[in-house]
């Protein structure tokens, strides 16, 4: 049995790992000639780390995961601590630590683990078709490939999604712009073992440690889309948007390298129930494009892969296994997309009264409520 996997991102590589465990041959096709991940880093929460362990790649998380042992919110304007607490109770409750990681390093190591020479790069999908005999993928370079089924992990701009759904989807602008990148750890900005977030005015600045003595940072600002801003104006833009904010925020703005700082207008896609059509299945962002507001985008793709493998472990019938995958995943991923959307709106001041109420709650928070929310999300995964 052979699977065609469209996309060599986190979703595609984890799907290949899961199918390989079931003795299924995988041919992987990646659109770009050279991997250049969008986004500097990402949060792999405990559910995602468990998936990496299950897929045989736990050592990658051990190497790349930063020492994130505490969590704190601080007032963006004054710098005063609103709440600060240990993440140890969360780790003890779910049995695994969270791992903020460099996205580029994670994807690179997953590809190296599989074998870069086994992946076909520069293969941008144009269309797919299926018959009783199997599936065929057609690429923009005029080539094609055939197999028994297709896993489309081709991202938020998926070309395969319309084939599965029968219609084109539209991305929904979430209302804010995110700048992200990496800087050397500086404890004048934030503690080296803590996820620190400054909030105020419907904006936020977040810093978390990853491996090799680096902070992953991101700035969020509610803005209209399509502004004439790019890397050339990043420091001026952030200095303007965060004028009057606390000194650590100013130090962070001074420390960033515009050449390696990403500016992204954040979108999601309205959740849908159909993830499978016959012998073709959507996985990762192609199936559930979400905002990053609860840190579950990468984790969801890893969960998809684990469930996909579990479904093929039950039956060698391709269409039955894929329908089982759809049944197991569609409500979970819809819930995560909508949770992220709700958190996005509160965090970014869609209704400033609700956002202010959240700030007030943070000042009373001892950690229990936040940890319980994180725990509930984590234990909803397939390896709870």
Automatic annotation (TrEMBL):
Ranges of residues in domain FAD-binding: 2-337
Alphabetized UniProt keyword annotations: FAD, Flavoprotein, Monooxygenase, NAD, Oxidoreductase, Purine metabolism
Pfam families assigned to the protein according to its UniProt record, in alphabetical order: FAD_binding_3 (PF01494)
EC number assigned by the record: 1.14.13.113
Reported cofactor(s): FAD
Reactions that this protein is recorded to catalyse: urate + NADH + O2 + H(+) = 5-hydroxyisourate + NAD(+) + H2O
Pathway membership, UniProt: Purine metabolism; urate degradation
Top-level taxon: Bacteria
GO molecular function, one term: FAD binding
An annotated GO BP: purine nucleobase metabolic process
Gene3D superfamilies assigned: FAD/NAD(P)-binding domain
Membership in a protein family: Belongs to the FAD-dependent urate hydroxylase family.
Protein name: FAD-dependent urate hydroxylase
């Amino acid at each position: 049995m052979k699977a065609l996997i469209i996309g060599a991102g986190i979703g595609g590589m984890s799907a290949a790992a899961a199918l390989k465990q079931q003795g299924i041959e995988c041919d992987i096709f990646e659109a770009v000639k050279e991997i250049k991940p969008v986004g500097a880093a990402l949060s792999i929460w405990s559910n995602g780390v468990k998936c990496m362990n299950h897929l045989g790649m736990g050592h990658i998380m051990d190497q790349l995961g930063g020492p994130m042992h505490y969590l704190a919110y601080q007032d963006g304007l004054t710098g005063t601590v609103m709440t600060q607490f240990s993440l140890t109770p969360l780790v003890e409750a779910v049995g695994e630590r969270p791992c903020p990681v460099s996205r580029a390093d994670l994807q690179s190591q997953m590809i190296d683990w599989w074998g870069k020479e086994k992946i076909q790069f520069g293969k941008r999908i144009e269309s797919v078709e299926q018959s009783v005999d199997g599936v065929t993928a057609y690429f923009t370079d005029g080539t094609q490939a055939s197999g028994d089924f297709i896993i489309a992990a081709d991202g938020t701009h998926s070309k395969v999604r319309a084939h599965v759904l029968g219609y084109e989807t539209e991305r929904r602008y979430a209302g804010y712009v995110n700048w992200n990148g990496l800087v050397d750890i500086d404890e004048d900005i934030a503690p080296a073992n803590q996820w620190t977030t400054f909030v105020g005015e419907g904006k936020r600045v977040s810093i978390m440690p990853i491996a090799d003595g680096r902070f992953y940072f991101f700035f969020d600002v509610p803005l209209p889309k399509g502004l004439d801003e790019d890397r050339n104006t990043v420091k001026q833009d952030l200095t303007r948007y965060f004028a009057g904010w606390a000194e650590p925020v100013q130090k962070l703005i001074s420390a960033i390298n515009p050449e390696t700082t990403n500016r992204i207008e954040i979108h999601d896609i309205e959740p849908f129930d159909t993830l499978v059509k016959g012998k073709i299945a959507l996985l990762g962002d192609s199936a559930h494009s979400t905002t990053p507001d609860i840190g579950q985008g990468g984790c969801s793709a890893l969960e998809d892969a684990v469930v996909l493998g579990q479904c093929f472990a039950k039956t060698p019938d391709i269409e039955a296994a894929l329908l089982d995958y759809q049944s197991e995943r569609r409500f979970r991923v819809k819930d995560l997309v909508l949770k992220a959307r709700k958190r996005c709106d509160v965090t970014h001041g869609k209704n400033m009264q609700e956002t202010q109420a959240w700030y007030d709650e943070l000042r009373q928070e001892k950690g229990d409520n936040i940890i319980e929310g994180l725990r509930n999300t984590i234990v909803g995964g397939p390896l709870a």
